[in-house]
Amino acid sequence: MSGIIKFFKKALHDRKGRELPFQEDKAIFALVQEIARVFPSVLLDIVLAYVPNSIEGQYIQSLSKSYGTEIILDTPTSLCISGDYLAIVELSVHRIQLWQFKNDQWVFRYHIGGKRANAVGHFFYPTDVIIHTPPHNSHNPELIVCDSWNQRIQVFNMNDGKFNRMWSQSKAKPGRLNIPGSITILGEEIYIYERASYRISVFNVRTGKYLRSWGSKGHRHNEFASSDVGIPGENYMYVSKGELFITDEYNHRVQVFDPKNGNFLREFGTYGYDDGLLSEPVGIIVIDNEVYISEWGNHRISVFSREGKYIRKFGSFGEQDNQFNCPSGMAVMSGELAVADMNNNRMQIFR
Fold first, then answer.
1. DSSP H or E run through 26
2. Rounded to two decimals, what is the model's pTM?
3. Residue 87: partners with Cβ closer than 8 Å, 6 or more residues away
4. What is the DSSP letter of 65?
5. Strand arrangement of the beta sheet that strand 253-257 belongs to
6. Burial class (CB in 10 A: 0-12, 13-18, 19+), 14
7. pLDDT tens string 102-121
8. What share of the chain is helix, strand, coil (3-state, %, to 5)?
9. How big is the CA angle at 277 (ends 74 and 273), to the nearest 5 degrees?
10. Which of 33, 38, 138, 299 has a Cα at 20 to 30 A from 349?
């Protein structure tokens, strides 16, 4: 396989979490090489159209202490996969783990935190993590952690886990974090959902400079209902194709916004337990034209179209394979969906 294809496979792997379906064809390789040389961004858009675009819900394996695997988890609530790296948030033990997939197995790299504290490098109920590769410094990827009850964002060098920077200043007015619960990134902007202020605030990811915010408490468009006291419970976000999707847990719905200006685009979801209904949606991830939602109330993963049409579900309450007890954050790698099965203290993988 040519060097450019290997490089591009990794670039796409980082962005989408899945492999490219290219065949070993010299003519195709030659064409791809030329496109990559002249129009690298166009090549990305072309190849994205060929990536497999659904997870059917076939159970593959679980990773946890009880299943005898290497990864030992305690209340995993959020996951992030980028390339060969897996970052895991462990809520109750106030810790972040980093693992690397190497030689066909997961290898533990390090952990950050591990006790409740407000000192740098420690956490008080961390709730979300992102692996971020700065475009100006691609050799030094970062771990960005939502340190919820310390009311701040901490940033670490992913290569060694050392603290880099943070921003906080806890107060209710815009620009001051008020129980940040989830984070996502688009370009140079980081989007932070604040549980106690019921809003999405946007900052520059490098400087921490406040840019804008939207949202308030309520049940109408552009309003949210989330628990501002008590752990756990989050409204997670995901940006896909220029749209920001966010679970609105206690309104039992998903809202979709234009991330550039916060304009409301649409919503979907109605409270209930039957197929196509939602009960306490928490985690969310978008794979092309399908939206995967983890539900605490129904202990399952429900799948919808981007426009909100119900497609399928998988999972139920329990501790066996393909069962959940409060499924939370999700991530995709190599065509497989990893789900943080929080109260079962494990990560389940589906295809």
1. helix 26-38
2. 0.83
3. 79, 80, 81, 96, 97, 98, 99, 129, 130, 131, 143
4. T
5. 237-240, 243-248, 253-257, 264-268
6. middle
7. 888 888 999 999 999 999 99
8. 15, 45, 45
9. 70
10. 138
- Could you report the per-residue pLDDT of 72-91, keeping only the tens digit for each? 899 999 999 999 999 999 99
Beta bridge partners of 203: 190, 210
Question: In this predicted model, what pLDDT tens digit does every residue of 167-200 receive, in sequence order?
Answer: 876 555 677 899 999 999 999 999 999 998 999 9
Task: Name all contacts of 212-216 with Cβ < 8 Å and 24+ positions apart.
Answer: 212/261, 212/262, 213/174, 213/175, 213/262, 214/257, 214/262, 215/262
From CA 196, how far away is CA 229, in angstroms rounded? 8
Q: Are 306 and 313 in contact (CB under 8 A)?
A: no
The full set of domains in the chain, from first to last, is: 3-47 (no CATH), 55-350 (2.120.10.30)
More confident call, 64 vs 233: 64
